[in-house]
Amino acid sequence: MEIKSPQFKSRASAALENEQLQSALTHVRSNFIDKRAKAARELPEFEALRDAARDIKNHTLEHLDAYLEIFEAKVTEGGGHVHWAQTATDARGIVLDICRRRNVKTVTKGKSMIAEEIGLNEFLEANEITPVETDLGEYIIQLRREPPSHIIAPAVHLTMEQVRDGFREAHTHLPDSRPMDEPENLLREARGVLREKFLGADMGITGANFLVAETGTSIIVTNEGNGDLTQLLPRVHVVIASIEKVLPTLEDMSQIVRVLARSATGQEMSVYTTLSTGPKRPGDPDGPEEFHVILLDNGRSSMLGSEFRDVLRCIRCGACMNHCPVYHAVGGHAYGWVYPGPVGAVLTPSLIGVDQAGHLPNASTFCGRCEAVCPVRIPLPKMMRHWREREFERQLSPAGQRRNLKLWAWFARRPFIYRLATGVASRALAMWGGRRRRIGWLPMADGWTAHRDLPAPQGGTFIARYHRQRRRRRS
Amino acid sequence: MTADRETREQVQVGLFVTCLVDLFRPTVGFASVKLLEDAGCQVHVPKAQTCCGQPAWNSGDRKSTKGIAERVIAAFEPFDYVVAPSGSCAGMLSHHYRELFDRDEQWRERANRFADKVHELTSFLTDVLGVEAVAAKVRGTATYHDSCAGLRELGVREQPRKLLAGVKGLKLKEMKDAHVCCGFGGTFAVKYSDISNAIVTEKADNIDNAKARMLLAGDLGCLMNMAGKLKRDGSAVEVRHVAEVLAGMVDQPPIGGE
Ligand code: SF4
């Protein structure tokens, strides 16, 4: 996927001006939040489950190599194949090899962020293989040739009207007069179109919410059932997952599933939790002939020993972006790469480099709401701050900003001089504010005054006035 | 003699007034002193205080932050408690200083001992001193915004509301999404001013819709942001720091108001 994170600022400004987007985003602002809150309230042990989920993930990350090896052994035992991919290029190459060997022309796909991360669709198309997204949201944005704007609701940036227009344009074989006013109409239409594709596909590619080491199982959690058809009907099933998706046992998985849907959509459970363990065995009524799991690293193993390790606990529930005021304001595309919102602000610099994604960890008020709702308690603001430290050390932040900061810090370490300076500043600004007691424009603070007034100081600093009063009282 | 004894038995509180209050709104400092003295504390205002170091900390400048933090710690070491009329600065002193010095053999102990003593003003009054009600009388209606760090780092939510409920003549009207960020975020408001503006615009709508005469909060940064927006849009809402109302010191013009 093309990286547009360096243009975060201009993309954010454009998003703020985009009325359609703003109207679509109101959905995120209310729906997800209320539903999660209700689900959390209704489960007395919810907070304890979050602790358990965090602990399970931490334990797994500490022994990641061991669990991955067990997983590989189990998959192989069941007749499946495990492939290790160091980079996105490696992963794409592995997919292509399997496609070539099995003469694959059409691929159905379940929702997968890893497929986005490695830019799989563009790659398959370039190699004359047709990928068909089967998750409704993914299908909608595939028609529009857009990347997802949310990790669990990829088309959340679109209004119903936009979806309808997309369908009209793409499904020319259907009568113009067909009813398209209700979401159900559109859903039925997509289902009809996709049914054909499921039956004709040579390969199904899915992501994985979890991989279970003890059984060699890959698990997807969905609401549409499209994932099941994707992995059951074609001859070949390929799972692409990043290495941190592994969990030791089915019991661990079932614990984490209890916080996943509640945090994501407010459901107790998603509609489908589908476990696939290997290819079709003799006597099985259905299933793929071949079962492959591609395990992608793409920079994650180097995060294990770093201060960013904890973000590898992420179970991709989307709660952090659902609760983020910045995401609410600008939506997911502004972030310019695969992962938006707070988790993207931490993960993206790790995966594509902080020189590219430097804006992301800076564009946060540190309000802390993401950490407050994250089911695996990832300290997201703290990690964004760690990125800011790296940027500061590497002098990636703007020179003017760094200079101002140094100057201010110099004063702040010298209370006596600081007192003199703030005394002058408070009086000058108070005068500037005049009788209105507010400032409409100020050099160097025009980012502030472009949108709001600056309340003027009352005049004289507290410390000076307080000590003057005390002296007067004593004498 | 008695005065002397009393002094010695009184709780010794160092007031960390915050750089914004110092520079922009001394009234909040005087209100804090009054509230603490009324609750029986002996208040000290060390002249050596400047800022908690948050602007440097949140910009990734650990070294400057340390330089500032060491001076803050030294200046406030003599007191039983350190109190700040700000959840954000109190959070910096009580939570982030620990992280700042966690790999510093020389300072870790001192920083942790200091951090243990730090409290946000309304939480100090209620949770530590057990104050049930303040003596103030302020007529009118008010809505309260929960500033993020106070709310989520320090758990400040009921404390200011409890104290406000005891102010004679005052009625509290909750706004929608009182716990959602106002878009200030320190330098964020200047660096990403468009986004900050979108967030504070929504906040200002919620404030206006609450139909209260006053907007109160516990952090001057957020208050200046919200007041700046409300005033730019011509809103009549009076913006004040919660300490001003709790101390009954509402004779000064409100923040950004004439
Ligand atoms: S960081 Fe936490 S809240 Fe965000 S997607 Fe991952 S698990 Fe969910």
Describe this structure in words.
- The complex is a heterodimer of chains A (475) and B (258).
- Chain A contains 24 helices and twelve strands.
- Chain A is α/β, with parallel strands linked by helices.
- In chain A, α3 (46-62) packs across α12 (250-264), α9 (160-170) crosses α10 and α16 (341-352) packs parallel to α20 (380-393).
- The longest helix of chain A has 24 residues, at 19-42.
- The termini of chain A are far apart.
- Chain B has helices spanning 2-9, 19-24, 26-38, 54-57, 62-76, 87-100, 108-116, 121-128, 148-154, 158-165, 188-191, 193-209, 220-232, 242-246, and strands at residues 11-15, 41-44, 81-84, 118-120, 137-145, 168-172, 214-217, 238-241.
- In chain B, strands 2-1-3-4 form a four-stranded parallel beta sheet, with helices on both faces. In chain B, strands 6-5-7-8 form a four-stranded parallel beta sheet, sandwiched between helices.
- Chain B has 14 helices and eight strands.
- The radius of gyration of chain B is 18 Å and the shape is globular.
- Helix content of chain B is 51%, strand content 15%.
- By secondary structure, chain B is of the alpha/beta class.
- Chain B has two domains: 5-127, Rossmann fold; 132-246, Rossmann fold (3-Layer(aba) Sandwich), CATH 3.40.50.
- At the A-B interface, α1, α15, α19, α20 and α21 of A face α2, α3, α4, α5 and α9 of B.
- Bound molecules: iron/sulfur cluster (SF4).
- Residues 314-320, 343, 374-376, 378 of chain A line the site of iron/sulfur cluster.
Q: Total helix count of chain A?
A: 24
SSE arrangement of chain B, N to C: HEHHEHHEHHEHEHHEHHEHEH
Radius of gyration computed on alpha carbons of chain A: 26 Å
Order of strands across the main sheet of chain A: 1-10-7-4-2-3
Total strands of chain A: the figure is 12
What kind of oligomer do you see?
heterodimer
Structural class of chain B: alpha/beta
Largest sheet of chain B: 4 strands, parallel
